[in-house]
Amino acid sequence: MANFAIMRSGLTLAAIAAVCTTLVAFTYQLTDERIEANEQAWLEQSLQPALSGLFFDSGVSESVVTIPAPHELPGSEDAIIYRVYSGETPVAALFVVSARDGYAGAIKMLVGVDINGAVTGVHVLAHRETPGLGDRIESTKSDWVRQFNGRSLQDPEGDGWKIRRDGGEFDQLTGASGTPRAAVKAIRETLQYFDANAVAIFSAAADQEDEVSE
After folding, report:
1. Contacts (Cβ under 8 Å, ≥6 apart) of 183
2. Contact 97, 80 (CB under 8 A)
3. Which of 31, 41, 58, 149 lies 20 to 30 Å from 175 when distance is taken between CA atoms?
4. Inside any domain, residue 3
5. Can you tell me whether residue 106 is helix, strand or coil?
6. What domain count does the chain have?
7. Taking the C-alpha atoms of 14, 17, 22 and 27 in order, what is their torsion angle to the nearest 10 degrees?
8. Same domain, residue pair 45 and 56
9. pLDDT > 70? residue 4
């Protein structure tokens, strides 16, 4: 009798476990697509601030290229490039890069560049800069990043791509020069990379790692 009771208890536990596993799998199938859709919507929304004034009909995150480190873009990690199209015509590229020499560490940024090499927008994704000073690089804290919209390697030329304290044309932040200095440098380096690699960027296969740097 004791053995029968033990066997019956074991079978009951096994049945409960099987039911629970089935329920978990069923729930996962129901929610997985919804979670993926929400994540995709969040990604699309986070990319939009760097595409000011552009017309495009592709999903911003549909065509992606990863540039393995080391590369000529700002940052020591693999760089991600989102390619934006109107029909089959390239419109812009969005670069996820890092200014390595921020005051308190790397500044992760999204830099949009249109097909003609002009900045479409800059959006700061992550940083550890000083609250009340360096954190004003965020678009929610000030308009500082908007001064780059429409700028290119020809506007300004050469040393103009520096903060005013260093003889350039870009405003710094009061009490914080290291942060804007790093950001300006990273944006310029991104424009230089696009200028040298635009054809390769848009011809590289999507959704796989490609080395497009010269």
Report:
1. 99, 102, 107, 109, 122, 124, 137, 145
2. no
3. 149
4. yes
5. strand
6. 2
7. 170
8. no
9. no
194 falls within a domain: yes
Find the range with the poorest average confidence among 36-50, 75-89, 94-108. Answer: 36-50
| Structural contact between residues 80 and 160, judged by C-beta atoms closer than 8 angstroms | no
State the Cα–Cα distance between residues 205 and 79, nearest whole angstrom: 15
For 158-175, the pLDDT digits (tens) are 899 998 989 999 988 765
Considering the domain architecture, whether residues 39 and 65 belong to the same structural domain is answered as no
Domain of residue 42, residue span: 1-49
pTM for the whole structure: 0.73
**Residue 196: what pLDDT?**
96
Distance CA 163, CA 156 (A): 12
Q: Is residue 214 part of a domain?
A: no
Question: Rounded to whole angstroms, how far apart are CA atoms 168 and 160?
Answer: 4
